[in-house]
Design brief:
This protein has about 475 residues and is α/β, with parallel strands linked by helices. It is about 45% helix and about 15% strand. Bound molecules: pyridoxal-5'-phosphate.
Length: about 475
Amino acid sequence: MDMGFDLPGLLAARRGEGYELHARYLNPQLPRMLHAIGFDKVYERAQGAYLYDRDGNSYADFLAGFGVFGVGRNHPVVRAALHEVLDGDLADLVQFDTPLLPGLLGEQLLAKAPGLDRVYFCNSGTEAVEAALKFARYATGRPRIIYCDHAFHGLTTGSLSVNGAAEFRQGFDPLLPDARIPFGSLDALEAELRTGGVAALIVEPIQGKGVHVAPPGYLAAARKLLHDHGALLICDEVQTGLGRTGRFFAYQHDDVEPDMVTVAKALSGGFVPVGATLAKDWIFGKVYSSMDRVLVHDSTFGANAMAMAAGLAALAVIEDEQLVGNAERTGGALQAALAELVGEYEMLAGVRGRGLMIALEFSKPRSLKLRAGWNMLQAARRGLFAQMVVGMLFRRHRVLTQVAGDYMEVIKLLPPLTIGDTEVALFRDAFADVMEDAHQGGGLMWDFGRTLVKQAVSRPAASGPARG
Ligand SMILES: Cc1ncc(COP(=O)(O)O)c(C=O)c1O
């Protein structure tokens, strides 16, 4: 008998087949890589800062879906708002109307960004960046965009053109005519501006890759240089925005007003893909200069009701639970607790970041006993020590983290902004235990290191995940 579509029934019938189905029908390197680094779990449930597997084990989520879960997973306020949209029989995506929800979300986002006047809504971080690049080119009538070494702005072709990492770009040429400069260098910016034709600089106030913080005053000085040359400042806040760094936007650590700001990730409330490009009124005035041009840059799903409601609910949670302040306070406590370990473990070179965007950097040990292991990993691939630490945090302590970029001995912490003292202590103790083991120079940890080396040598794709 035909029972119609039964999602719970389908999921129960096919339980546990995810890895096999991915290997067969989707990107096969994902399951392969997860097996290689020992991350091949099946999660069944999630709440706040924790994931749970089918045996009921809990995992502390210091990855937060690459920064999506600012308000934590399955937040009841966001979930209730989405139920209300579903149950509301809304007239969504009419296209030839002006629904209330995007207007309300635009109003609220702009209230957090004094000096910016208008918002374009889309469906992801890279789309928010694409819009900013197009708007900058059209508004200035110039073709070139300057970007920084190690920058990550997404992987569609425009965003890829301003990606500062060769491993992402290679093989996709020719890209847009752009220019790369060192992050934080005003001299390089000025030199590039002098060559002419520059529409904008796009920059992450704190780079996701490696967690590099812009030098104090850099953004304000960059904006001045850009404006002196008739060019614009675009701050990409896709990862750093919505409280992550202890300010609503990370550029607000500096005294600067960008011309455009991109947002995505945490605005989703962890449920519905969304992106937004905030801009000055005059930029919209140019791009959308007449009724004929009303759809000149647009996206079918851009301002859909589910995304807008998720965004409004996420902003309400950030406000009600004072998550910006919590990110600053808890992030400060976590950084301080980790900084204390730097003197204790010679391979821990430093802790950096802002709020709850934190990097731990490793470096070559001084003692001969440890050098052999370090050198073995380095010979196979730079970054494998960091991958080994990420692997051990996960295997031994069920703490989910990531390496901060390819070929970097850096791990990155990006937990939900809701974490508190319990998670600070949990992470600190887990990390100290893993460091202790690494500095013993033997045992299970280095066995895992040798497995990583074998995998890195025999199949390079399997040596670890690295996103912006
Ligand atoms: C700073 C920054 N910009 C843009 C993006 C791209 O966002 P998405 O993956 O939603 O396209 C990312 C993603 O990690 C990011 O960190």
